[in-house]
Amino acid sequence: MVEHSGLDIMCMNKYSPGASTDTEKKLFTRLKVSLTKRYPQKNAETLSAQYGANLLLIGVSVMLALAQHGTVVREEHLLTFITVLMLVQLAWMLCYMIRRERERSPLPERDAHAGTSWIRGGLTMLALLSLIMDAFRIGYFVGYHSCISAVLGVYPIIHALHTISQVHFLWFHIKDVIKKYETFERFGVIHAVFTNLLLWCNGVMSEAEHFLNNHRRRLTALGHANHTTVEVEPQCNCSTSVCSMFSTSLYYLYPFNIEYHIFVSAMLFVMWKNIGRTLDHHTNHKRPSTRSSGLLLGPVLGLLALASSITVLVVYLIHVEKSVQTREAAVSMFYCYGVVMLVCMCGASGTGLLIYRMEDWPMDTGQNPSRALDSDLLLGSSLGSWLMSWCSVVAVGASQSSPSYRWTCLAYSLLLVLEKCIQNLFIVESLYRMRTDPAGGEEGSGSVPEIFSVASSMVPPYDGIVNRAYETQDKRCGPLENEAHENRQVYSRKCSGVTLPVENSLNVTPGRKRQVLKNITIFLFMCNISLWLLPAFGCRPQYDNHLEQEMFGFSAWSTVLNVAIPLNLFYRMHSVASLFEVFRKV
């Protein structure tokens, strides 16, 4: 009976309220640990990437519905969605910056290779042009405010605030390597990446639709076809006298706004890849500035290419609007210019690759997300123009007509494929080559003795091993200096009648090769700017030569161009940024 009562008492104690509280505390502690434990990095990357990709696909789906010009999905619906995404990004950037300011911990680790100052300066200039475009949009809304949605007025205001805040974030936080709240920050950064990608897609769609309407109008005026243009105009009169100027000027600023958003998304993607990353402090440093002596031929030829490109652009835009004969002459002029330009660029890139084969500079295999992204973007953005070029090759080969520009179009298309292949190889190899200073030290190493100097490096100053820990300064300096003097005298007597090619092949020639590489790089830099200007401001002979349109049909060929031309524009601007980095590194 007593034993039974004891067991009852033990059971009662086990299930008493106090015991239950202890069990719940243990369970809560385990749950808290499992929820706050560091989430696996790969799972967080995958989950946040899926979130961002679905955001982009939602926006693209709305854009495709809007492209049909129906009555259900309108422009204000798309702009409302984008505005909400920008507001969420603004809230995340504000929280991130406030938390960084309040933290008393040391400054976060920073990736020296992410977002160099000259890239951020270039993005600031593009952001200023985007702000001018927002001002034009606000002026357009003011003129038609009585008959258009208020979203069209709110959107440019939020976009301007988003641009200013984002530029501030890029200048002061883009190099941060986040080590706290990693999972949450991954979602914030990837949200910013895909918000900018969606803004890029919106700009590309608006600019392509505007250009396509102008092209249809031009075809109808020339009598080639009766294409209908679909342009939604406000159903009221403008209350000011500058509405037409605002709407026309917008499309001259679209290329800069498009490039701004795609470059920002690339920089934020590097920040996303850096979250939780352990930096190698031996390679994470800024490269010293290099002298740019001997630059003459590259800048002169580059400026000549730029001037000729501007001339071709002006002549093309004037003559393509006139008769059929002048339009064909303008298209022929463009292809002849393009063939000459691409041949020169192929030769320059090939010469750079040949120099790298002659030099024994080591390859840098260290982890660098920014450099890896540059290589991937070069290849990915090349696909658009390669598709366009091979479609042109097929159209030229199977065409029944034979205009004057038929074979120059074929040569231009093949050279465009070859030029991008060789230029990609040159840029990628330049980025992965480990720089050596003129004295022979590798990039990132400390001060190294003069390797290429016969007097200092080939003559051993000491004969034997000196244990500095057990010898005094006075005891070792005298004999060693005498031995070094004797060694130099013996070496000079032995080599007095021998010609040493070491200094000519290792010291002088690398300096000349670097000068050649710098001239090649600045020439390619100017050429890529020239080839960006032409399609960005309306010189697009792929719409006007009619070879591809006859082969693939107007709708299919327009779809190819609407995808390929934005990728080609991004490729040229990204090549400009990469070549400037190569110029600083050589």
Describe it.
There is one protein chain. This protein is mainly alpha-helical. Helix content is about 75%, strand content about 0%. The termini are far apart. About 30% of the residues are buried. The model is unreliable at about 1-15 and about 440-510 (pLDDT under 50).
Give the arrangement of secondary structure elements.
Layout: H1 2-14, H2 17-36, H3 41-67, H4 75-102, H5 117-143, H6 151-173, H7 182-222, H8 243-274, H9 297-319, H10 324-358, H11 369-398, H12 406-432, H13 454-458, H14 473-495, H15 502-536, H16 541-544, H17 547-552, H18 554-585
Percent of residues in beta strands: under 5%
Structural class: mainly alpha
Q: How many H/I helices?
A: 18
- Cα distance, first to last residue? 95 Å
Order of helices and strands: HHHHHHHHHHHHHHHHHH
- Portion of residues in helices? over 70%
Which radius of gyration do the C-alpha atoms yield? 32 Å
Overall pLDDT metric: 79
The low-pLDDT segments are 1-15, 438-509
The total strand number stands at 0
Largest sheet: none
Choose one word for the global shape: globular
GO molecular function: proton channel activity
GO cellular component, one term: plasma membrane
Transmembrane segments: 47-66, 78-98, 118-142, 148-172, 251-272, 293-318, 330-356, 377-398, 516-534, 554-571
Subcellular location: Cell membrane
Quick recap:
With 586 residues, the chain is an all-alpha fold. It has helices at 2-14, 17-36, 41-67, 75-102, 117-143, 151-173, 182-222, 243-274, 297-319, 324-358, 369-398, 406-432, 454-458, 473-495, 502-536, 541-544, 547-552, 554-585.
